[in-house]
Amino acid sequence: MNDVRELLEDIITSEKLIYGVLSKLKKKSNSIYTKVSVKPVLIKNEKVIQFTYHYDNKVMHKNLSFNQAIENITKLMNDYFRQAMLFTVDADYQILVSKKGKVKILKKKPSRKKVNLSHNRKKNYIIEENKPYPFLVRLGVMNEKGKVYSKKYDKFKQINRFLEMVSDTITTLENKTTLNIVDFGCGKSYLTFALYHYLVNILGYDVNIVGLDLKKNVIEFCNQVAMDLKYEKLKFKHGDIKSFEEFEKVDMVVTLHACNTATDDALAKAVKWGADIIMSVPCCQHELFNKIHNPIMKPMEKHGIIKERLASLITDSLRANVLEILGYSTQMLEFISIEHTPKNILIRAIKKENINKNAVEEYKNFKTFWNINDPYIEQAMGDNLTNVLKMSK
Ligand SMILES: C[S@@+](CC[C@H](N)C(=O)[O-])C[C@H]1O[C@@H](n2cnc3c(N)ncnc32)[C@H](O)[C@@H]1O
After folding, report:
1. Which of 122-126, 211-215, 255-259 has the weakest average pLDDT?
2. Do 124 and 103 share a structural domain?
3. Residue 113: which pLDDT band, with cuts at 50, 70 and 90?
4. More confident residue, 32 or 342
5. What was the pLDDT predicted at 357?
6. What is the distance in angstroms between the CA of the first residue and the CA of the last residue of the chain?
7. Is the pLDDT of residue 122 over 50?
8. What are the DSSP calls for 139-151, one per residue?
9. Residue to mutate, 191, 217, 238, 257, ligand 1, most ligand atoms under 8 Å from C-beta
10. Which of 49, 57, 16 is nearest to 172 (CA)?
11. Whole-angstrom distance, CA of residue 11 vs CA of residue 114
12. Which pLDDT score is estimated for 78?
């Protein structure tokens, strides 16, 4: 482990480390942690290394001084892990430990950019005010001095909120060097551009981002903006979600306010690709309005406005439930304050390995309660879903 310690001393004390992840447990290891990631952070103006220990879908953080961090990583590699990826400003290092304890260190071109540490403290303001961002100037959100136009202030807040939600989950993709991302129903693409800016310009990821929409003129406009800004790995395509076949594998699917069942088609694509992260804000959920019925719920069903909201909530609950059945853990988050729009629930789903049997039971009971037959999401998901439902009869 001397080579490992030497490398760590070099990259940690000279502040070259950007991010690292220790993985692949040794066979006889008794560690409860499946993975440990490390990154430099500023805590009360002191630079330390933050360790994130991953276990049972949970995480625990611990901050250590540079010297303690060098000792700790060396010990973790010695006792528990067979692989470490260390991303530094000069190079990406892969440390491999063989069954017999032999250490090999591979060096590759650097794939990440250094993040300004103060950024970690300003988590809620990834995009700042009074600072010009070319994409926001071009999209008419702020002027060239960085002043946000008052009529675009909600959009500005929405962009920050969205990026904050992405930043909470981005560790899920930490082992990947290139991220394939699709934004279905991207529209004018404020959030698609923001996502590109955040992942490429701030975090230093290599990405291929595609925005898809049915509106030809919007797609032409977005491609022109991406070209002018030299956002080379951001492309916009004209087409329907259902027939989109650009990628074989996608890491993140975003679909914000895609209308009615277009959201189901987007979720079905995401599941088919095995996307690790799905971020979806459904919109205009009309499908179940005429399909739900339970006599006990008559007081809610007899008022159109209540029934409409009820149908939306049932649709989204059903979607989240289906994602859980198919191996995702889901959260429902408030995307933007309800005072701005009622279309404000974001479904955030993170891929886990196992099929969730409880979710199957919940799904069947929920459908029976509301007397729902043949919801569109079942058609959209096709065999992926029907096979699991059949298996657990
Ligand atoms: C309300 S806009 C949302 C735009 C953007 N995602 C946002 O949140 O600001 C919905 C967009 O979804 C697109 N859309 C709806 N159904 C679609 C489909 N089946 N395939 C591709 N785009 C679709 C529409 O053309 C429209 O631009």
Report:
1. 122-126
2. no
3. confident
4. 32
5. 76
6. 53
7. no
8. TTSB-TTSPBPGG
9. 257
10. 57
11. 13
12. 92
Residues of the chain above pLDDT 90, percent: 69
The phi and psi torsions of 226 (rounded to 5 degrees) equal -60, -40
Nearest to 360 by CA among 309, 313, 325: 325
Query: What is the position in ligand 1's atom list of the atom closest to the CA of 281?
Result: 8
Nearest CA to ligand 1 atom 8: 256
Q: Last residue of some domain: 108, 136, 164?
A: 108
Joined tokens for residue 35 = 């993975």
What average pLDDT does the segment 230-244 reach?
Answer: 96
Both structure tokens of 2: 């001397």
Q: Does 113 map to a domain?
A: no
pLDDT reading at 355 higher than 90: no
C-alpha gyration radius of the chain: 23
How far is Cα 8 from Cα 307, in angstroms, rounded to an integer? 60
Query: Which residue do the tokens 């049915």 mark?
Result: 214
Residue 36 sits in which domain range?
A: 2-108
What is the model's pLDDT at position 340?
Answer: 57
| Sequence letter at residue 256 | L
Q: Are residues 67 and 137 in the same domain?
A: no
Using most ligand atoms within 8 A of CB, pick from 259, 269, 284, 287 the residue to mutate for ligand 1. 259
DSSP tag of 303: S
